[in-house]
Write a structure and sequence with these properties.
Order of helices and strands: HEHEHEHEHEHEHEHEEHHHEEEE
CATH superfamily of the largest domain: Response regulator
CATH topology of the largest domain: Rossmann fold
Helix content: 25-40%
Family: Belongs to the leucine-binding protein family.
Keywords: Signal
Domain Leucine-binding protein: 43-373
Protein name: Branched-chain amino acid ABC transporter substrate-binding protein
Structural class: alpha/beta
Shape: globular
Strand content: 15-25%
Pfam family, one: Peripla_BP_6
CATH class of the largest domain: Alpha Beta
Largest sheet: 7 strands, mixed
Number of domains: 2
Length: 382
Amino acid sequence: MRRNKVFAAGAAALALGLSLTACGTTEDKKGSGGSGGDAACDLKLAFFGPETGDAAGLGKPIIQGAQLAIDQYNEEHSDCEVEFVKRDSQGSPDAAPALATDVAGDDSIIGVVGPAFSGESAAAGPIFAEVGVPTVSPSATNPALSENGWDTFHRALGNDATQGPAAARYIKDTLKASTVYVIDDASEYGAGLAGIVEEDLGDAVVGTDTIQQKQTDFSATVTKVTDAKPDAVFFGGYYAEATILIGQLRNGGWDGTFVVADGVKDPAFLDAGKAAEGTIITCPCIPDTDPAVAEFAKSYEAAFGEAPGTYAAEAYDAASIFLDGIGDGIDNREDMLKFVNDYDEKGITKQLKFDDKGEPADVHVYAYTVKDGAIVPEGEIK
């Protein structure tokens, strides 16, 4: 393992800035891009995703997860620190090309943690690929992203071709739902995921509908669902719309099981109150019941004063890959891209290794449920 992922247990030590063994000994270093294996200097890592706007709740833990990895690296390299810069897309595909062009033009940005969402990944991907900026997304799950031939694209989690079937299995095998209504938010992520779930559920689907992001009146959709009387509703989309949608469905008299995916796994969804109770959330994000993630959660909470949110640990892993390369002396994008493509090390969330399309070799999908006003892990969906 290039960076020792073992966290100290003492809260006092954590508060002072836990240090990880960042790069091993001098003898361990390969020096694949620098002189003699010494850490490269004057470099930046970029976050690309929502820092503000409606989706900021999903961006915050990604930013903080990456920040923690960088802060710990810098503790070990105080004379040669890595700078963390943020490119705030607000989760919008429309904003992505200009931001990607900005990143591409700054040669000191040697890697990108992100893009966070699928739509912005599709818009920014060609620009990153053209100039060779390696990216590792901790959260973009649309399967088509790895089919574009971008050598620069990687993701640190399973895509919706694994999450969608897992959600469908849970609906059929665990919920025993015989009828399901499928709704999406027309986004690249939401529509893609909902389509996979619909296909896998087959004849169990009694209706489909599409809403729009930033929509607040779902009365037409509520009428369609209550008329169909499904045992379950699957929604492909993000927490902003899901929070309102479930409230209106409950007010409309529907009492079945609401099933959503990782785009809804945010504390803001709990603002729906009683209406959110019993909601099932699927996510390719590992719960903090895992020992390694639990130790990560302690240091995260010490640093930021709150528990890690969705994809914080995956963002830590994504940043750590780049930091391993920088620690090995890599100081240019070409060598960093080769380093990432060849990477095969144990991370917090999984064995971090990519296939030739940038997909992770180690994929798991987990179920969570909203219980007593909290999002509680149920376990892996086998």
